[in-house]
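re: ur question from yesterday

yeah so i grabbed the chain u mentioned. its 232 aa long if i counted rite. heres the sequnce exactly as i have it in my notes:
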Amino acid sequence: MARRATGAGTGAGMGKAAVKGARRPELRLPPLEPWTDGELAPDGDYDGLEFQETDLAGQDGAGARFMDCALTGCAVDETALGRARFLDSVLTGLRGVGTNLAESTFRDVELADPRLGGTQLHGAVLERVVIRGGKIDYLNLRQARLKDVVFESCVLVEPDFSGAHLERVEFVDCALRKADFGGATLKDVDLRGAAPLEIARGLDRLSGAVISTGQLLDLAPVLAGELGIRVT
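ran it thru and got these C-alpha cells back, copy pasting raw so excuse formatting
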C-alpha cells in the first residue's frame, strides 16, 4: 500500500509563519497488474491495477473504488465517475472533456500533467492531493472540500470554487485565471505562487488567504471596484 507523508510543509517568503503549508502525499505503489477488462463497471473495485493508455471515454464507473492504482495516458472524455474513490493512486496524463467526478473522493493522490476541460468535481472531497503540471479548463469544484491540496506548475482557466471549503491549499508556480471564489471559505490558503492571480468573483471571500504585496497591487483596481472606490 502507498505510504503517506505525515508532516506539514511551510510557505515560502513573506508571511511564512502566517499560513500552514499543505501536507503532501508520499506514494509508493506496489507492483501493479495490468487492467485487461473491457470496460469499467459501476461500483467496481479496482485494487493494485495499472491502466495504461486506456480509452475510458464514455464508460460508466460511477461509485467505483480505485486503490493503489496507476492511470497513465488514459482518455476520460465524458467518463462517468461520480462518487468514485481514488485512494493512494497516481494519475498521469489524463486527457478528456466533460469527465464527471461529482461527489468523488481523492485521498493521497498525485495528478500529473492532465489535459482536461469541463471536469465536474462539484461536491468532491480532496485530501492530501497534488495536481502538478498540465492544464485544466473550467474546473467545477463548487461545494467541494479541499484539505492539504497543492496546485503546482499547472494552468487553471476559470476554475469555480463557489461555496467550496479550502484548508491548507497551496498554489505553487501556478496560473490562476478568472477564478471564482464566490461563497467559498478559505483557511491557510497560500496564493502567493499564483502568477497570474485573476479573481473574477469572490474577492470578499479571501479572508484566510495570503497573497504577496505585488499581487495586492495587481488586484487593487478590482478591489477598489468591489468597494465602490473611484481612483482618479
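noticed a couple things. Helices lie at 213-227. also The mean pLDDT is 92.
anyway ttyl
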